């Protein structure tokens, strides 16, 4: 991407209502974030990351139609609790809770279109693979850790997950 194109993108962002623009081309990736009054650079980066996450997984964060979700202000996005933020989230799960050992993207199957590793009601052994979590372009197998029956699947396929976030319940 040449400098003239980058300059025109910067002008576009500064003259419009959009606060962030990210473009990926063969030569590389450019991300332009408009400075907001009263925010320091670390605060802007945190806000941009949160907005990006909110737009990537709107179904898991809110039940609004996608058009309303994308039009929310940063303040509205902050008011929506993230998965697993509820106090005593563990108290409502009975049985063995399988938690994410890392931050990444949750996948129920080995590849798109393939059958999921487990379904609700599946009998699993201690070392059976329940899902994959992609972190830094590596696919990590998550094992049950306990033999039993899968009674709850707490994460949607393709959803970002946090460290320690409950994924499955096995009884």
């Amino acid at each position: 991407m040449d400098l003239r194109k980058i300059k025109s993108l910067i002008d576009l962002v500064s003259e419009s209502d959009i606060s962030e623009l990210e473009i990926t081309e063969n030569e590389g990736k450019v991300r332009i974030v408009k400075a907001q009054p009263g925010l320091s650079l670390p605060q802007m980066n945190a806000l941009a990351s949160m907005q990006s996450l909110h737009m990537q997984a709107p179904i898991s964060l809110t039940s609004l139609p996608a058009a309303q979700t994308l039009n929310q202000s940063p303040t509205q996005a902050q008011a929506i609790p993230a998965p697993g933020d509820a106090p005593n989230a563990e108290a409502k799960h009975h049985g063995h809770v399988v938690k994410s050992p890392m931050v990444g993207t949750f996948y129920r199957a080995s590849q798109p279109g393939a059958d999921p590793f487990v379904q609700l009601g599946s009998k699993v052994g201690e070392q059976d693979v329940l899902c994959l979590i992609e972190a830094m372009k590596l696919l990590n197998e998550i094992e049950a850790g306990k033999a039993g029956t899968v009674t709850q699947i707490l994460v949607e396929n393709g959803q970002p997950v946090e460290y320690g976030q409950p994924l499955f319940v096995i009884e």
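The CA atoms of residues 124 and 147 lie 5 Å apart. The radius of gyration is 20 Å.
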